[in-house]
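FORM 7B: Structural annotation worksheet

SECTION A. Query
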Amino acid sequence: MYLDHTKPMSPWPMRAACGFFASFPVACFSLTVLTDIAYWQTSNLLWLHFSEWLLLAGLVFGFCAFVIAVVGRAIWKNGPSWLALLAGVFALLAATLNSFIHTADGWTAVVPYGLAVSIVTVLVMVMVMVMVLAAWLGRQEASHV
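SECTION B. Predicted structure
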């Protein structure tokens, strides 16, 4: 039996892994906005700590998703556009800045800059999701023509 090992494996496992890891930053960064608003309204430090942990989890999983997306793009030339990857880097950098802002003590960790950067992070993340989805839908339509 002859096996051809020159072709790379199918991109589907990488897409599935990237989708799995990319779902966590969406949830974590969106919930960070809500926990920041809860802290702003109640001044309970528990919400600040929730925000810190959500930012950490979102950054870890976001970095994993980014690495998988770059590897998939490099191997198959078939993944998120380089512009979407660059926007993803910007979202991760905004979340990193947000994480550093949230390390301050008490009220100044959230109001006003922590909440503002949380909102900017979510908006950039939504922009990245729209870019990736538009590229994916464009490929689906092209393959059915």
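SECTION C. Observations
Helices lie at 12-42, 45-76, 82-102, 113-143. The two ends are 36 Å apart (CA to CA).

SECTION D. Sign-off
Analyst initials: ____
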